[in-house]
Prior knowledge:
- By secondary structure, the protein is mainly beta.
- Helix content is about 5%, strand content about 50%.
- The chain has one helix at about 40-45; strands at about 5-10, 10-15, 30, 35-40, 55-60, 70, 75-80, 90-100, 100-105, 110-115, 135-140, 150-155, 155-165, 180-185, 190-195, 205-210.
- It has a six-stranded antiparallel beta sheet, with no helix packed on it.
Amino acid sequence: MALLWIKKASGIYPLGVAAALFASPGASQATPLSFVDIDAHAISCLFSRNCKISSHDTAGDIPLPSSASGKAWLRSRTFRGARGSPAAGKRGYQYQVDLTHATSLADAPCVTELALDFGEIIPLKYGSAGFANHGYVVARGESPSVRLFAAETEGNIITFTFNEPVCAGINDGSGLASYFVGVTSVHSPKSIVASIRLPGQPLVKVKARVPDH
Length: 213
């Protein structure tokens, strides 16, 4: 579920929690996921024999409250493992919450969590350690961004919790964005309409791409 916060001069306060948008009755207890920091080149080498991947990028507009202006996006990036690569036959999925071009001189909207109806996750050996992880964060070699604090699954839902709120800024370009977080599936992508809660609005629709599980 997606938790929206509001940033005030005196601190950051929760506005509310979106309902379990995709959860079904009797969903299993939440299970924590293991993640590792990695650079984009390592992911390219995992999904391609020549360390070059062709990705399909989409961006779902996050509607902003009347106190804010500019643009905010939920970015989805998908690619497939090439034949002969370590991740052959699998699909890579990456997500980023981006409020760098959202501005507000009053109460700035913030996002601390992202939830997706993803389905089964395929663990892979992403880093140099000798064991597999559920996912990864493209943090090495990238510009400073908001890190991932934790992730968990409950039923088919993945919930990503960021290390700090991803907030709009005072000026264009001064807002925050999360690092791309990535997970792997065996299923090809499909488009869905996700929902998050924004200040002063009912649940709003945000486009994303997830496995067709």
